[in-house]
Design brief:
Blueprint: H1 5-24, E1 29-34, E2 42-47, E3 50-56, H2 64-82, E4 89-94, E5 113-117, E6 120-124, H3 139-148, E7 153-157, H4 163-170, E8 175-180, H5 183-195, E9 203-207, H6 210-219, E10 224-229, E11 234-235, E12 244-245, H7 246-258, E13 261-271, H8 280-285, E14 286-290, H9 292-295, E15 307-313
Parallel strand pairs: 3-4, 7-8, 7-10, 8-9, 10-13
Antiparallel strand pairs: 1-2, 2-3, 5-6, 11-12, 13-15, 14-15
Helix pairs in contact: 1-2, 3-4
């Protein structure tokens, strides 16, 4: 069996440094290990008193008994180094994704609990879905939104569980609209709003296909000062009239969002398609700033986990 000592050593080194950093920054959810060593293709995340352990599919082939032994040794190393109980380690095998898999149920119920991030609280579940309810790699951009939202009208497109809106609303946004097609995740967003004392009359949750929402909002003359759009790479949800392919469709989405953005407003556009390239016509039409490097938090070794841009209207 592979010697797991290098994995355990790296985990110990990382946690020693990052635990102080997380405490200093008021974070209860953060990444200890980010596939640092290729032979150990795992992401290890702390969520309060629990560990979210994800194994990434590498295509390696191992005999079943050898694989189970290797996996047990990995879990044992995580328990030993972190001091967490084996019952608090939540393992997921993350296969190469297609479509809407990130939103699909795993078949396990899991338990909902809350974690704190920069003074805000969020409901998470480490078992029920492939993802947990809080994307840790967007923490920096969430903070930027919270720090700049005072007095602004905010729009959150492809909102997932509404974490960007939680930051905007608690940062002083005068109003917001939070848009997604999934009832499950909008219900989750509503619970996050309640957890943070957010006024539902001022901060509306809207279930809609984003393409259709953009058309309707434009017709109605809606205007926003700050917009976040973080679409999935691909979606073939049965609730959508068409598939979403972010490489093919991003120019249309950006144009739709920009049509709602006030003249001095700001759009954050992000996605996690590794091969993604921004359409040159988009760069011609708007002021674009690539903030990908600054937007990935310090606890993520993989600086290409997502790409992120600030987009503004060109000065007339």
């Amino acid at each position: 069996m592979t010697d797991i000592t290098p994995f355990a050593n790296r985990l110990g080194k990382n946690i020693k440094h990052l635990m102080k950093w997380a405490k200093r920054n008021g974070l209860e959810a953060w990444r200890i290990y980010d596939r640092d060593i290729p032979q150990f293709p795992f992401a290890v995340d702390v969520y309060g008193s629990q560990i979210h352990l994800q194994e990434y599919d590498t295509g390696w082939l191992m005999a079943d008994d050898e694989y189970e032994e290797w996996l047990a040794a990995i879990i044992e190393a995580v328990v030993f180094v972190t001091g967490f109980s084996p019952d608090d380690i939540h393992l997921k095998r993350r296969e190469r994704q297609k479509g809407t898999q990130q939103y699909e149920k795993t078949g396990r119920a899991g338990e909902d609990f809350t974690v704190s991030e920069h003074g805000r609280r969020f409901w998470v579940n480490l078992d029920k879905y492939l993802d947990t309810g809080l994307f840790l790699d967007h923490r920096n951009t969430r903070k930027k939104v919270g720090d700049s939202a005072a007095g602004k009208r905010f729009l959150n497109l492809f909102s997932y569980t509404g974490s960007f809106t939680v930051y905007a609303a608690t940062g002083g946004a005068v109003s917001s609209e939070t848009v997604d097609l999934s009832k499950t995740y909008l219900d989750w967003a509503k619970r996050n709003f309640e957890l943070n004392g957010i006024d539902a009359a001022q901060h509306r949750i809207i279930r809609a296909d984003v393409f259709q929402y953009l058309q309707t909002a434009s017709r109605e003359g809606k205007r926003f000062d700050l917009i976040v759009m973080d679409p999935p790479s691909f979606s073939n949800s049965k609730k959508m009239p068409d598939t979403l392919d972010i490489q093919r469709d991003h120019a249309r989405l950006i144009d739709g969002a920009m049509s709602l953005l006030d003249s001095d407003g700001l759009l954050y556009f992000s996605n996690n398609l590794r091969s993604f390239t921004l359409d040159e016509d988009v760069s011609q039409r708007y002021e674009i700033k690539d903030i990908s490097k600054q937007s990935v938090p310090d606890d993520f070794r993989n600086k290409k986990i997502h790409q992120c841009w600030e987009i503004r209207h060109k000065a007339v």
